[in-house]
Design a protein that fits this description.
Length: 273
């Protein structure tokens, strides 16, 4: 009996320690509050089973599952309570992860993996909230794939869809983890670049153009090679002025198209500031 108790205590401790680690990782990586709750509920049972194993190994546990000794009864009763609570925590974790998954699906474009308009608005609100703690500027890129309609008409929608995916992959390769990429509609995309100057944003925009060109260079069968026209606008991150920035970037984008496409243009009023 004693050997079995010690063995079970060691096994449960090991499992619980792994679950504490996983809960903390989920809390940090996915911002799951239930991950922290899970870790908090599994950590005490590691200690409780360590005590139980020690008592069994030193002959203080006896040979009963619920011995008459008050201390042992408290350890057993507390352990049972934690077992019930952490079962509820696992259900809470599963529910929160499912909710987050549904929210992510609702806020992302299924074709490119970029955010949709709803996700873009939420990201803008989050950036504005963070800017209240750390003030700074926000630069917006409005990106249009040149000649996309002609590409669709010539090569079909399947090729057009693949071009959109190639663009999204190329753009993400040049953006930071804190940046936001969203599909604004059709072949138009938006990139939010927090705490970045207009000059640096222009460099990023040109790197995206180059990365997109390299991605297309390895694709055979596309006779009409699309390019990118990009408009840049800068504002205050804390003001949550998405519509105003989009309007300014749209003016710069159309100026880029009038000048021959395949270029980056900056909204003049943004530079004046």
């Amino acid at each position: 009996f004693v050997k079995r108790v010690v063995l079970v205590a060691i096994l449960v401790m090991a499992c619980d320690m792994l679950l504490v680690r996983e809960g903390l990782l989920l809390w940090r990586r996915e911002r799951l509050a239930s991950g922290a709750i899970l870790a908090a509920l599994f950590a005490p049972t590691v200690v409780l089973f360590a005590i139980r194993g020690y008592l069994a190994a030193t002959g203080q546990l006896g040979t009963e599952l619920f011995p008459a000794n008050d201390a042992n009864q408290w350890v057993a009763a507390t352990g049972t309570a934690f077992l019930l609570l952490r079962g509820s925590a696992l259900l809470l974790l599963a529910a929160e992860r499912n909710r987050n998954t549904l929210v992510a699906i609702a806020q992302h474009d299924p074709l490119t993996g970029a955010m949709n308009r709803s996700g873009l608005e939420r990201a803008m609100a989050r950036i504005a909230t963070d800017a209240g703690k750390r003030p700074g500027r926000l630069t917006l890129l409005l990106i249009d794939i040149d000649h996309f309609k002609s590409l669709n008409d010539t090569h079909g929608h399947a090729t057009g869809d693949r071009i959109l995916q190639l663009f999204a992959e190329a753009a993400r390769s040049e953006l930071r983890a804190s940046d936001v990429l969203a599909r604004h509609g059709g072949d138009e995309f938006v990139a939010l670049l927090p705490h970045m100057s207009t000059r640096d944003a222009v460099r990023v925009a040109n790197r995206i153009r180059s990365a997109f060109g390299r991605a297309l260079a390895g694709r055979d069968g596309v006779t009409l090679q699309p390019t990118l026209s990009i408009g840049v606008a800068e504002g205050n991150a804390a003001s949550n002025e998405l519509e105003a920035l989009l309007e300014q970037a749209d003016e710069a984008l159309y100026r880029s198209k009038r000048l021959g496409r395949d270029r980056v243009q900056v909204q003049i009023r943004a530079l004046a500031r």
